[in-house]
Structures are given as C-alpha cells and as structure tokens.
Amino acid sequence: MGEYIVGLDEAGRGPLAGPVIAGCVILPKDFPVDILNDSKKLSEKKREFANSLIKEKSCWGIGIVDHETIDKMNILQASMYAMKLAYDMVVIKFPDWAKKNGFKISEKFEESFFAITDGTSCPEISCKVSCEPKADGKYPEVMAASIIAKVERDNIMKEFDLLYPEYGYAKHKGYPTPAHKEICKRIGPSPIQRLSFNY
Fold it and tell me: Is the pTM value of this prediction over 0.90?
C-alpha cells in the first residue's frame, strides 16, 4: 500500500430520488478510529459527531451527482463520477493539509496515495486504487468516507423535504419505501425523481 490510504465510498445508489454522493478521506495518524464504523451501523447522533471530527481533522472531499445526471449516465457510472469528484477535491486540499500537519510532500504526492473503495467497481482516478466489497466495515478511511457521504446526503434530502413535503424525503431519504412509491403513483414524480429507475 501507499504511504497515504485514501478511503472512498458513496451514499445513495438505491434511492428513487435525489443525488448520489461520494466521500473521500485521508485520516491523520492520530485520528480516534474507534468512533468509526460503516455509516449504516452508526446512530444518527454518532454519525453527526464522527462527521464533524472527520471534517475538522482529516483531508476530505465530497462529490455530488444530481438525479438528472444519474438518469443520463446510469447509477453505477454516476457513483464512480461522484467518487472522482470527491477524490479531485482531496487532491486540491492535500498540500495545505499536509503542510498544516507537518508532513513533507513532493510535487508527485499522488504517487504515495493508495485508494480503497467499497464495492466491486473502481473509479478512474489518478492514483492506485483497489475496490473491495465490505471495505466500509474494514478500513477506517473508507468508514470515514461513508460517514461524510451519508451525512451530506441526509442533510440534502432534509432540505428537499422542505421544498416537497408531500414526498416525505426527511423520513425515507428517497429510498424505495412503500410510502414513497405510493405517493409517486398517486401524484406523480417529484422534481428530483430519478426517472430511469423502476417504481
């Protein structure tokens, strides 16, 4: 592996509405990894706490791909694109973060990166990358990426709930619950619906 492990994960592949969001994280060596886990296994309160600490101490990036782009390129490609966007943000932020944390880096610092993504597909990014199923329960960096992605997406869906309260986005976050499917059949799709998905 490289000198720096880069964790990648996404949130929102399964929903019928809203964006897919990816997180990318490089953790400092002294990060309290015991607060991390697969984001789905943490309570909302613990996720929010971990999210704040990750954003305070780590080098992190977020990639957001909206519902219209998902419909154009399909959800797998949209997820990979979101990861690339998140990774690119980390590359931009890394030199300043490394300097702040006392690391000496070369101009070719990406050669010291080794990215790990949860799942069976790898994004096209400018460092070595490995995809591994259930990585979000094994590597702290991937856990951290899953946490910031999920918190970001949940917050966005809560904002959409204020715009389209009849769809219940604050409760189900756009996932295919019976209530979500029923409201779409009754009054039609919302403006953030993924129209390429089956209902």
Answer: yes
